Amino acid sequence: MPCATAVAVAQLPPLPPAGPPAAPATPATVLDPFSGAGSSGVAALKLGRSYIGLELNADYVAIAEKRLRQIDTYQPRLL
Length: 79
Known about the structure:
The protein is an alpha+beta fold. It contains two helices and two strands.
């Protein structure tokens, strides 16, 4: 005996943003001793934090610097 299947399709309303509402950034400095491509720095700057990244490999320093320059709040101070 054949089995009949019915499928109902409905459009759901969009989900609300995940997590609590964004609060003002707490002043803080993120220290990343193995900075690599600078992902921690990108996140820190986007969240309004200061960032200090340390990296020995010059190729990764160049990659991180390029990524960080794309962030509006980036203010380079190379030591």
